[in-house]
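> forwarded from #structure-qc
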């Protein structure tokens, strides 16, 4: 039995399909985007919540939430460093934006899909965002 290598055409088709799936998932807001350095980072994310705790976070994170209610409850724990949170509605309008958040908890009124962006600079602590 001789081995017959797959054609280059099938390899190209496979790569195109994988790239298309990644672009589709990203455009639908499925998943979490991460760019930066995370030390001791433990995250729990779902369609309607996102939480993480870590020893050190530097960079940007993004996650899309589909809340079950019209309010998101946010808890932030800051031991050191800075953290900023921005939330955008499905239409792209900013519904919440705050920089240098200390340890606190608050509610944000939302309707429908919410894109959450977190930017941290040497932040030690964590956050919990849930509906």
């Amino acid at each position: 039995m001789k081995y017959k290598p797959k054609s280059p055409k099938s390899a190209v088709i496979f790569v195109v399909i994988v790239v298309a799936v990644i672009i589709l998932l990203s455009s639908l807001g499925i998943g979490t985007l991460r760019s930066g350095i995370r030390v001791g980072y433990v995250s729990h994310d779902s369609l309607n919540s996102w939480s993480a705790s870590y020893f050190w976070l530097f960079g940007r994170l993004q996650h899309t939430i589909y809340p079950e209610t019209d309010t998101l409850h946010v808890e932030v724990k800051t031991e050191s460093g800075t953290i900023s949170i921005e939330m955008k509605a499905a239409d792209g309008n900013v519904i919440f934006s705050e920089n240098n958040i200390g340890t606190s908890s608050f509610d944000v009124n939302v309707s429908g899909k919410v894109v959450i962006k977190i930017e941290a600079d040497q932040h030690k602590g964590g956050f919990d965002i849930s509906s």
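QC bot note: The longest helix spans residues 8-27. Helices lie at 8-27.
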